[in-house]
Amino acid sequence: MHFCQDAKGVILLDILPQGQCINAARYCSILDRLKEAIRRKRPGLLKRGVVLQHDNATPHSANLTQQWLQRYGWEILPHPAHSPDLAPSDFHLFGPLKRHLGGMAFETEDDLISELRN
To answer: What is the full per-residue pLDDT of the chain (118 aa) written as tens digits?
Structure first.
């Protein structure tokens, strides 16, 4: 799961289909969708500049991704590999999400995805 947020909330949620792996091309397609979602939901953000925080996973550091980021002038906020510091999402998203989903049972994966999107 990839999600993108700002201070106002989640801008984009991308759930990788079961059995698929993330690679640089898929990550760049997520960035394309994020750029479009920002244009629709937070148009001023594109004018002020986008700063991403992501780790050094291969799809994030791949040449294809770096070229995409340079093309659109998006900045990367460093997050050292294996850092013990929590990303804001670890605290502000995953904790509340875990509490919300705790005890729920889903009949299908689509039911779970629907609840995540809500």
So the answer is: 777 888 788 888 888 888 889 999 999 999 999 999 999 988 888 888 898 888 778 999 999 999 999 999 999 887 766 666 666 666 667 778 888 888 899 998 889 888 887 8
Question: What structural domains and CATH numbers belong to the chain?
Answer: 2-81 (3.30.420.10), 86-118 (no CATH)
SS3 label, residue 3:
strand
pTM of the full predicted structure?
0.77
Check: CB of residue 30 under 8 Å from CB of residue 14: yes
Contact partners, residue 105, CB within 8 Å, separation at least 6: none
